[in-house]
Amino acid sequence: MQHFYQQCLKEELARRIGDNPSYSMRAFARALKMPSGALSEVIQGRRRISYKLANRMTDALDLNITDQRRFILSTAEASFSGTRKRFDPHFRRVIQNSTAAVSSDTTLSLEHDLFQAIADWYHYAILELTHTQGFRSDSAWIATQLGISRPETQAAIERLIRLKLLSVKNGRLVKNQPLLRTSDRSLTTPALRRRQRQILERSIRSLENDPIETRNHTAMTMAIDPTLLPKAKERIDQFQNDLCQFLEKGKRKRVYELTVNLFPLQRGQDENP
């Protein structure tokens, strides 16, 4: 299994390529102030990272405090498993200060995987794509179908497999879970907000580029009783489930996203102008 620091580096490279298709491993290495060949070996797990380099990487990757600790701990554990003869004393202290050094890397990596899977729209799209006619278990084909970079696609596939949401059977990618939903629909998190923002951005792109025959964008403005919102949300959930069951009865040829937006256009009476 890959260490957390490898995942972070791969995902950051994929993100930058997604933002700029001409971005390269060489450019990423320059940003991290190291040779591109050495960076490639680090990502592939063939080269260990020094404590000094690990800290420099966390600064360049702009990680939050929690992920900085995860990053440093995972590099420490990778170095400890590789050789103990020339083990950096800084790494030794990192491991000694960890309450669960042996299992922490796996646990933290899965937490990071889950956050990314919930947050980035294309994870759900890849899972649904496996049901479509003509599906090919090839990252290049999937990337083309979804309009994302191949590194992003490959990282997402690996993450879904680690989370056991996707598996490989007879050389074919197969979705394991029939339906994915958040456990508490009344809560929101940074990951869920990020996913919804991405979906809204994709909706705008479809509005501007896809023919009307292949999409449906409608809106209705209304004056409502806010106390009925809980019941309205229940009806929206039921509508989405019913429509999903109806549409999936036919031949699955293309992946779609359904969004139903209900939000206030007017400030509340207790809000300051």
Give a written overview of the molecule.
- By secondary structure, the chain is mostly helical.
- It is 58% helix and 3% strand.
- It is built from twelve helices and two strands; from the N terminus they run ααααααααααββαα.
- The chain has a two-stranded antiparallel sheet with strand order 1-2.
- A hairpin with a 2-residue loop joins strand 1 (166-169) and strand 2.
- It is globular and about 60 Å long.
- The chain starts with a helix and ends in a 26-residue tail after the last helix.
- The model is unreliable at 99-108 (pLDDT under 50).
**Terminal residue distance:** 53 Å
Shape: globular
| Order of helical and strand elements | HHHHHHHHHHEEHH
CA-atom Rg in angstroms: 22 Å
Helical/strand content category: mainly alpha
- The counted number of beta strands is 2
Largest sheet, if any?
2 strands, antiparallel
Approximately what portion of the residues adopt beta-strand conformation? Answer: under 5%
Helix-residue proportion: 55-70%
Mean pLDDT, to the nearest integer, reads 81
Contiguous helical run count: 12
Q: Extract low-pLDDT stretches.
A: 99-108
How would you write the strand order of the largest sheet? Answer: 1-2
